[in-house]
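Last lecture ended with a question: if I hand you only a sequence, what can you say about the shape of the protein? Today we answer it with a concrete record. The protein is Omega-hydroxypalmitate O-feruloyl transferase. Below, first the input exactly as provided, then the predicted structure, then a couple of comments.
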Amino acid sequence: MVFPSKQTEKKSLFLSNIDKVLNFEVKTVHFFEANNDFPPQIVTEKLKKALEDVLVVYDFLAGRLKNNSETNRLEIDCNAEGVGFVVASSDYTLDQIGDLAYPNQAFAQFVHKTKDFLKIGDIPLCVVQVTSFQCGGFAIGITAIHLSFDGVSFKIFLENLATLASNMPLDVTLCHNRQLLAARSPPRVSFPHPEMIKLDNISSVFKSSSEELDFKVFQLNSKHINNLKEKANGNNNTRVSSFNVISAHLWRCKMLSGTYDSNDLSTILYAVDIRNKLNPPLPKAYIGNAVLTAYATIKCEELRECEFSKLVEMVREGSRRMNDEYARSIIDWGELYNGFPNGEILVSSWWRLGFEKVEYPWGKPKYCCPVVYRSKDVILLFPPFRGSSEGGDDGVNIIVALPHKEMEKFQSLFYTF
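The predicted structure:
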């Protein structure tokens, strides 16, 4: 275990209704090429020291989850019990482990579970593993419980870790006040929320799949994305976002590759950062989950027949719907019901989060990727591999997991459309 380098205040940290829904592990691997000035042993020492220092500022991360018996709410007991730290080595060189952008399930060896990390029943909120390769390159694998961070605040955490590893002072004042996203009293649900489902009849997209899945990476470069934008735009001159056209494209391909009843409804879910959607806006350095699930719904038969531009507009409308009152309504819904986002497809975008742009003393990562999550209803968007022939830095990698026959159909539709 690694502990804060200075004494921290013992306290309980309130978790918002957004946080408490996200009580599952997120595992990422950050690959680095060999740097003669920073062999893996030096990196390990610097990273461990930086982790001890960062836990003074992120004191909650060294805490443990507990249920408050008075409020019956999940919260973090900031008790300085530490985060996990693992040092490992591989007999391979970085070049030998293959295409880093490909969702390789063997990458699970580069991260460590939080559950029962050093003693039975103890679950740290974070475990960091450094794995050195024979070439001098290394991987930093991080497992964190999602309720600790969303993607934006995890990027800030990585930047702060990198700053402390460089022996520089932090220049960001963090906002730990998760009461900013507390429900109103009394709760006021002012909109219907078909994108949410109560837990007693859950069939959530976050469930992992037991069936055999094929994994594929689909790549779109800027030319492909502009083609989709032209199709979406028709004769209008309205500005269409890359995310909206990609999401609509994936929605159509995913639904048409499976079996469905023409009268069934199809719902796409996608995360929206609400920091600037609230009134007043949240501080930029809000540490916690400030993302909510936007949605669009259409009958399967209509999805098959309708214009692509209509699907894109529906995705766009889902994001526009997410204003202050709508966001507060979802948070209040979470106060009244034990529920979860629910749909046939969740597009989770790590594309513009910028993990790969974080500058450590030993350089930027060669590539960052998630450890594959086994769900056929979750599609991940990721930055392209740096230096790849497929569009350089302006494209996107799309990670899809589907049963074999559905994958064949999805692949055909993906390129046909």
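Comments.
1. The chain has two domains: 11-180, 184-416.
2. The chain is about 25% helix and 25% strand.
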